[in-house]
Amino acid sequence: MTNEHRHSERARAAFLDALVHDDPLALYDAAPCGFLTTTPVGRVTFADLLAVGSRIYYGTHVSPSLLMSDRVQEVALDMTRADGTVFPVLVNASLARGEDGRPRAVRFAVFDATDRRSYERELVEAKERAEASERDAVALSRALQQTFVPPTPPSVPGLDLAAAYQPAGLGTQIGGDFYDVFQVGDDEWVVTLGDVCGKGYEAALVTALMRYTVRALCVGEERPGAVLAAVDEVLKQHPANRFCTALLLRLRRDGEGWLVTVGLAGHPRPLLLRPGCAPEPVAASGALLGVLDHPTFTDTTVRLDPGHVLLLYTDGVTEARNGVDFYGEARLLAAAVDVGPDPAPLVDTLVRETLEFQGGTLSDDIALVAFGPVVVR
Length: 377
Fold this sequence. Notes:
Structural class: alpha+beta
CATH class of the largest domain: Alpha Beta
Oligomer: single chain
């Protein structure tokens, strides 16, 4: 048994002995805390033992509370020692009244709170460090997201193109939806749209990885399916272990129209919109990226003539929820029929309807791209 433990045991025994024998003076001497009694009027009051700030707080808060309820508990104050140094305490106090109801004495139990105050400071500092780290992670994610979501859709000669991205919630949480449009040759462009599983900075890192991998691969590979297969291998080697859905389209101008070769990886199929026709899904299904050992991806080519539009969207549109109800494909198709093959009005309408359906706050990110040959009017 250590000397400190022996001293603690002796103090405890002395306190119990004083308690059993009803010895007030011994009880004061042996109490495991500061214990004192003051009268309403005297040369020294309890407030005189406090540091300046605590003395003011005692007069404005603690003393009035005692007069109203006859008791206060666990009030944090600072006391001064005889040498002038300050130390933190927790104070419990009760007010004794005479038969006439007037205050006669106040009994205080004072506990040393040095260790507790240190622990509380450590908790506050740890919380502040965690909040700072979270702010840094959000800032990093936002900076990354700004690089893979174009601020405005690019201008493609001979192509009418509109796009939109809307983050979930209040926009403070980083999602995995993205789109990109870039040129790979004379009158040749690539359009990609995808959705990385999850949110936060890890999803943002994987999204950035995918975006730049696609850009690099498309320089030397014309087949969207082959590019998706290579991206799949890259994702499976990434430590974040995230899967992704994607659309990859290679566009080549052909006279007044465009030839579009589509590769699909676990993503909702694009919709082909033509005047007087029902919206038609195009492209063969393909596996999710980053999941299967030997996935297959098939290329599908479709021609867009003037008046034709391809609509690309992420599942944040169709899976938008209002209670137990989903926005769904039926509403999407109805909006496409109502607006018709006109990229900008179509994208604007779907963004507005999805927001209104969810009361103005999205439950998931949404990304939309619509494009078709420029119509000469």
